Amino acid sequence: MNPNKSMTCTSLPRPAWYWLIPLPLLEAALLLSWSSGFIGARFSIDYAPALLVVFWRCVVVTLVLFPFVARELRRTSGVVLLKNAGIGLLAMAGYLAGITQGIALGVPAGLAALVADLLPLGLALLAAGVLRQRLAWQVWVGLLIGLLGAMLVTQGALARGNAPLWAYGLPLLGMLSLAVATLWQKDLTAEQSLGLLPNLWLQCCVSGLAFALVEGAHGSLAPLPSTGFALSVVWTAGLSTMGGYGLYWLCLRRATATRVASVLYLSPPVTMLWAWAMFNEPLSWQMASGMAISAIGIWLVVDTEARQTRRKRAERTS
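Below the sequence we write its predicted structure tokens.
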């Protein structure tokens, strides 16, 4: 046995644990946890203002994760922390504030959810228009088919509402905020990126401060002494924040932003399955058809990007 070869093999860095999990499994977990946020919001509105629950879910995640991230945060430069804090503000505070405040002002929840589902298309347009990235025509077709399926699923929940005209732009701004944060995160170098947990902690910390300023201007930030409020915070902190956002950033380390966002086209039907199981809301063949159409669009995006990746690898080795 060659000792030099043995030393070389043992000196190779071990892959991060999340590279050992098949990407489709991570994406399935992302779908379940991301859609849980809409269910958590639906559950919590009966017990507390939406932004108060969002504020306290940030507080809980910040407190729970701090012992696990304190050492890495101390070793990180201020410039890196500021960049990741900016991404966190856009990804969480900007996105959630746009969606929840739009609904609070009278934008129907179904319409707000549909605008949030424009994320894959918003990402693609920003990447093409701002970053000059070229996407294959099959990817564009897949994104449009996925959107068609999402529209079919949410059609029964759509309504015009009686919100001020400008309020309808808030969910759109929230979606664009997450899209910008996603592209910014993908553009960071390895030296500028934080680990998964420190990134999530910083994101919740800065967003919690932002929500404190917004909600504190309208009333008290004190937690409400009710079981419903406590369950709302625990549900959204665990499933929606640590699960949803954590898996979102995790999947972005494994795949392109377009692929990860396109998977979220299946969020509306999965949310409705949650609602059927928890609130006995009815299901319909229209929802099933929309889910199938979205799945076709997602498959087209994933298959096209997989073929492009294989072709690039073959060009490098030839």
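The longest helix spans residues 285-317.
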